[in-house]
């Protein structure tokens, strides 16, 4: 753990950067003249770029060395954070957030891969627990620290100062990056650089259409963007299958998703992070715009939630030892209870002032923090364990791609419902309805967690670490040529 602290700081920084966007979002409209859809697009631009580059960055780390890629990503994250802080307009900010997302995409899969290739099983368990805690605290700390910075009466404070703080974790991690053990490159396949563009552009079109649609009354070009995005993603998947069959470089080999545990885990990640991404955005808008809290007050109100999340993340090995395979199911049930309570509070306290809502949230937030950390931690281990160590970078990329794409889609969809309902219903009741949608996604998460637990032991043996997962037709072609897999 002493050698991997820069890895944990780097993991903290990547999620911190996303979270900074949430706390600054309510200020972008007045200061940059941004519409609600444009504000949502600022948040989504980071997450989409992050998601699009993750798998490619994981493969680059496997081939060229993870410490080298981690160093490049940390430098890029610091520089792009400064660019975002200096953006003169909203579309310049969108572009800078795209670059920030690309830099974070280089960092994150290297951190998971370095942890996953630790020397011992206990070291990997401790590393994953610390990664979970660091990533979760980074997500919440962005709103707490960002709110404090925005409340300072200093030149270049405000939202620009908050955005600039996202450079600090990268700088700190760079100070210790040489402590990380060098892992010899173990990839030989040329990365599919074009594949990153073929998935990134449709994903950006999809999220842009969903983000801007409600604010523009669904003018014809926003559904067209959504359709283009969906068709583009489908075309990307078909193209990857054809390239794999032909033995050409691919970004995501369809055969790599063969382990059922991996497929279930990725779908669970989509449900979990779509809900959380929407919750973070809605919380900032509700507290700062609807309830009139300052950024400092909004951030401090999350302290109990953040503390519970961090504590549960650090204690995750003990929690999973106590509850075993049922941990994620129990956590999902706990989260449903917390969301229902918060929804009822939000619905029935409308118009009663911020103090009552915040007081209730401080109590319920502990429940939410414990539940979400207990969903997130075991899920990371499930996904990472489903892929061989020789492609640990790909495993980190797959999981974090699902995470970041889902954060963006959650803001665009559930957050869009919230924004549409706020004028007629009021902020608190619109928030309650959005929480109801998140209850549905959490129930689906519970169903999948139960299915994952009930899968027969050893059913993924053919996909165990070290097993050959290439497509059967490729193996047949190689056998015919005298090539041994």
Number of strands: 0
- CATH topology name, in short, is Growth Hormone, Chain: A
Gross CATH architecture: Up-down Bundle
Nearest-integer average pLDDT: 78
Q: CATH superfamily, called what?
A: MFS general substrate transporter like domains
Number of domains: 1
Main pleated sheet: none
Strand content bin: under 5%
Main location: membrane
Keywords: Membrane, Transmembrane, Transmembrane helix
Protein name: MFS transporter
Region (Disordered): 457-485
Protein architecture, described:
This protein starts with a helix and ends in a 5-residue tail after the last helix. The protein is globular. The protein is 78% helix and 0% strand. It has one domain: MFS general substrate transporter like domains (Growth Hormone, Chain: A). Helix 1 (5-32) packs antiparallel against helix 7 and helix 3 packs antiparallel against helix 6. By secondary structure, it is mainly alpha-helical. The chain has 18 helices and no strands. It has helices spanning 5-32, 36-64, 66-85, 90-116, 121-151, 158-164, 168-175, 193-212, 221-245, 260-290, 295-300, 303-314, 316-323, 327-348, 354-385, 392-425, 427-453, 472-480.
Helices and strands, with pairings:
Elements: H1 5-32, H2 36-64, H3 66-85, H4 90-116, H5 121-151, H6 158-164, H7 168-175, H8 193-212, H9 221-245, H10 260-290, H11 295-300, H12 303-314, H13 316-323, H14 327-348, H15 354-385, H16 392-425, H17 427-453, H18 472-480
Helix pairs in contact: 1-2, 1-4, 1-5, 1-6, 1-7, 1-10, 2-3, 2-4, 2-8, 2-16, 3-4, 3-6, 3-7, 4-5, 4-16, 5-6, 5-12, 5-15, 8-9, 8-16, 10-15, 10-16, 10-17, 12-15, 14-15, 14-17, 16-17
């Amino acid at each position: 753990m002493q050698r991997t602290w820069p890895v944990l700081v780097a993991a903290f920084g990547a999620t911190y950067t996303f979270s900074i966007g949430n706390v600054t979002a309510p200020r972008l409209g007045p200061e940059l003249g941004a519409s609600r859809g444009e504000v949502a697009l600022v948040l989504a631009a980071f997450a989409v770029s992050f998601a699009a580059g993750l798998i490619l960055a994981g493969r680059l780390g496997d081939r060229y060395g993870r410490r080298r890629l981690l160093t490049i990503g940390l430098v890029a994250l610091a520089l792009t954070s400064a660019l975002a802080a200096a953006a003169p307009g909203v579309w310049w900010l969108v572009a800078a957030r795209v670059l920030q997302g690309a830099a974070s995409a280089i960092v994150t899969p290297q951190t998971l891969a370095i942890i996953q290739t630790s020397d011992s099983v206990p070291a990997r368990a401790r590393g994953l627990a610390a990664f979970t805690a660091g990533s979760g605290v980074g997500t919440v700390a962005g709103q707490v620290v960002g709110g404090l910075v925005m409340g300072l009466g200093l030149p270049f404070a405000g939202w620009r100062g908050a955005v600039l703080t996202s450079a600090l974790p990268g700088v700190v991690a760079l100070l210790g990056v040489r402590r990380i053990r060098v892992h010899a490159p173990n990839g030989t396949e040329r990365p599919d650089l074009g594949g990153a563009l073929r998935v990134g552009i449709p994903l950006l079109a999809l999220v842009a259409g969903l983000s801007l649609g409600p604010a523009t009354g669904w003018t014809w070009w926003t559904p067209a963007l959504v359709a283009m995005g969906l068709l583009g993603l489908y075309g990307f998947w078909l193209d990857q299958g054809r390239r794999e069959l032909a033995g050409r470089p691919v970004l995501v080999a369809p055969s790599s998703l063969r382990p059922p545990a991996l497929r279930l885990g990725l779908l669970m990640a989509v449900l979990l992070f779509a809900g959380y991404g929407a919750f973070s955005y809605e919380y900032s808008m509700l507290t700062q715009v609807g309830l009139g809290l300052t950024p400092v007050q909004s951030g401090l109100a999350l302290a109990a939630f953040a503390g519970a999340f961090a504590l549960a993340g650090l204690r995750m090995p003990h929690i999973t030892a106590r509850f075993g395979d049922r941990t994620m199911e129990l956590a999902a049930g706990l989260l449903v209870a917390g969301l229902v309570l918060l929804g009822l509070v939000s619905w029935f306290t409308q118009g009663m002032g911020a103090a009552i809502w915040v007081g209730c949230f401080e109590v319920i937030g502990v429940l939410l923090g414990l539940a979400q950390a207990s969903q997130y931690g075991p899920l990371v281990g499930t996904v990472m364990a489903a892929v061989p160590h020789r492609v640990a970078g790909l495993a980190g990329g797959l999981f974090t791609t699902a995470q970041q794409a889902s954060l963006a889609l959650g803001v665009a969809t559930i957050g869009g419902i919230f924004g549409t309902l706020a004028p007629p219903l009021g902020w608190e009741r619109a928030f309650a309805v959005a929480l109801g949608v998140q209850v549905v996604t959490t129930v689906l998460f519970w169903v999948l967690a139960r299915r994952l637990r009930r899968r027969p032991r050893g059913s993924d043996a053919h996909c165990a670490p070290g097993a050959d997962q290439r497509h059967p037709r490729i193996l047949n072609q190689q056998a015919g040529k005298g090539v041994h897999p």
